[in-house]
Amino acid sequence: MRFQGVCYRAHDPRWSFAPLSGEGAAITGGRFNRKGEPALYTSLEIGTAVAECSQGLAHRVPPMTICQYDVDCEPVADLGSDPARASLGVTLAELACAWLSEMLAGREPSSWLVADRLKAAGYAGMLAPSFAPGVVATQHNLILWRWGPDLPTRIVAYDPDGRLPRDQSSWKT
Questions:
Q1: Residue pair 82/92 in contact by the 8 Å Cβ criterion
Q2: What is the pLDDT of residues 69-96, one digit of tens each?
Q3: d(CA 166, CA 70)
Q4: What is the DSSP string of the chain?
């Protein structure tokens, strides 16, 4: 599918100078990427982006910078519904696996194996349900493995007034 629309991310403010890097995901690994593999995790709603960043700890929301993105990307695997997942041979259980526990135990999470299959099939990313605590089934994320400023994998941070910092020098370490 071709995804055209708006997405959001909640960033640690000191990394908001690089809203399109995907390097944070590469450092730690994530549900749909191994350590060392950049990935850009975005959400279709602001509330989902906050839930993803805070992981359900609504009473303790860390400081964050919310960024909006304009996206025009293809091909994207649509894993947002049971019929769409079935058409790609993917189960909700594979996506919803306890990926962090699996990774820490030295095993490859099934969600990584799904991502591997989709990347090998030529997909630039996937549309998938959010598994953050407290979200509902209609809240989705767009995860990209290939992206840039140009079609067919175009994603651009919306910053018309230049409010995002240009480098990390504005943050004390």
A1: yes
A2: 999 999 999 999 999 999 999 999 999 9
A3: 19
A4: --EEEEEEEEE-GGGTT-TT--HHHHHH-BTTB-TT---EEEESSHHHHHHHHHTT-GGGPPP-EEEEEEEEE-SEEE-SSHHHHHHTT--HHHHTS-HHHHHHTT---HHHHHHHHHHHTT-SEEEEE--STT--TT-EEEEESS-BSSTTEEEEE--TT--S-SSGGGS--
**Mean pLDDT across 108-116:** 97
Residue 129 β-bridge partners: 140
Cα separation, 23 vs 38, in Å, equals 5
Q: For residues 52 and 116, what is the distance between their CA atoms, to the nearest angstrom? A: 22
Which token pair is 164?
């995002």
Name the region of 22 (left: φ>0; alpha: ψ -120 to 50; beta: rest). left
- Number of other residues whose CB lies within 10 A of the CB of residue 77: 25
Q: Tokens at residue 58, please?
A: 């609504």
Cβ atoms of residues 77 and 127 within 8 Å: yes
Model confidence pLDDT, tens digit, residues 26-54: 998 999 999 999 999 999 999 999 888 87
Residues 6+ apart with CB under 8 A from 162: none
